[in-house]
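Course assignment 3, question 2. Fill in each field.
Student: A.L.
Task: Predict the tertiary structure for the chain below.
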Amino acid sequence: MTHEKQIEDSKLPASHEYGGSDQEREIAVHTAPLASTPKGRWERSFPVLACGAGLFSDGYLNGVIGSVTTMLRIIYGKEYTSSSYKSAVPSIAFAGTVVGHLFFGVLSPAGSVGAAESTGELKKGHRNRWFILATDFQIDLGFVVSAFVPMLVVLATGENHLRAAWRICLALGALPPLSLLWLRLTSLQNQATGTEANFSAYSFGIFASSWLVFILPTDSPLWKSFGMATAINSFWLPGALLGAFLADWIGPKWCLVGGVSLQGIVGFAMTGAYSELNQPSRVAGFIILTGIFMALGEVGPGDNIGLFASKLSSTPIRGQFYGVAAAWGKVGAFVGTYVFPLLIDAAGDDTVKQGQYPFWVSSSLCIFSAVVAFFGLPNVGQDMIEQEDERFKRYLEQHGYDTSMLGTKKFREETGSVL
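Answer field:
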């Protein structure tokens, strides 16, 4: 399909049909709906996919810390578990992530921001699902791979060489960002421009391999623990996929409220039945129920918190807005990694309570989150990005700013704005 035909189909007049100067024509094209831009399907979709590649790396690097922590605990024993090192490793990882969110949130639009703006050029009614598939689904896929890779590495090195194994697992995390470099260099800027985590999702994923050590027989090889963690993390994928479609069908707000409410209910049920689940012979049931719990977390907050954070602000501040929101999400995850070990320690030698306490706290927070989302979040439509930009433009005009040059190359060069 030619560009002229695409413009005709989208009811956007060709450049020669605009009156006035080249600058006036540029303004008219810039203020047209994003879905009307003369691009093919691949040109519209490629920036979304490129952003998703970076978030896959985010998921892997955050998830693999859990397996590394498990290996360090086995290597150093009480020297590691009885010291501050136990929480220092995941804490350092999350501290770096938070700083990165804040730094790049101010410096430029992050991965999720770029994906959100790119989906504005896609077909209405499908935008939320593609945003989620390029963001939360990619993060979840990174978490699944972050448990699968340590299983393969430990099988290859053997449990007598865990010092090499944990270093290999971390080193492999450099490959996705390097592959992303090519994608980002070849990705075009979209019309609008000129990365999401909650307490239970990250914390449960990070400690999945550690918890399974409690349930599996003491003589089970470590690779089985990582394999079980892979199975549990895999439940995130169908949850993220279902939530992606529900976000378009019923809206992000109701998808979030419904998903996190059901997650809390399942979590309370697991808390009550944990004494029955905490048996090596019933590890399959534990995996299924924990998987459902985590999948519902993806249907609700996992899929939708990034969508809210990246679509509820205008283009000039979207990167900063999302960066702050994502940093707070990582703070919640950091609190989870710090609190969960304390909850387990508070249970003493009672293995049942060691499993019940984290589920009880997380389930309570799920219900609390559902209430906050119900009363505090707005409904997000398919055109929210364009609506927020229009509101910002009206705000500027009401306060005496001249917006006639907004969107032109000259305006961007003089002001450094992305609008």
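Instructor remarks: The two ends are 28 Å apart (CA to CA). The domain at 36-387 is CATH 1.20.1250.20 (Growth Hormone; Chain: A;).
Grade: pending
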